[in-house]
Amino acid sequence: xxxxxxxxxxxxxxxxxxxxxxxxxxxxxxxxxxxxxxxxxxxxxxxxxxxxxxxxxxxxxxxxxxxxxxxxxxxxxxxxxxxxxxxxxxxxxxxxxxxxxxxxxxxxxxxxxxxxxxxxxxxxxxxxxxxxxxxxxx
Length: 138
Description:
It is a single chain. With about 140 residues, the chain is α+β, with helices and mostly antiparallel strands. It has two helices and eight strands; from the N terminus they run βββαβββαββ. A six-stranded mixed sheet has the order 1-6-5-4-8-7. A two-stranded antiparallel sheet has the order 2-3. Strand 2 (about 15-20) and strand 3 form a beta hairpin. It is globular and about 45 Å long.
């Protein structure tokens, strides 16, 4: 069996003010740190996956196994699946776009808000947040 392919320090998101879907979105260091904290506390309640082009029905392209900040960048260590490797190398999907909820509430305990929670990420050709590094396997 081949050794698993892992990307260390893949860029998901960075601080700044962005116009996304005709709405201004402010990403602060405080938001990034809360995403990391809630990832480590398993606030989402399950593993967090990367998809191809945000298509959750298409299967997992990778699993986010660690999340942390590096300066003003939200970074992830990702364990790739065959689907993800194919998308990166054969479809040239070299960027990631984070999917998060700024005030995540579970359906089991709707009275408890967790704050910012990473829901997943999508491999993409055109990330909405520019200025992030492409995926590499160095």
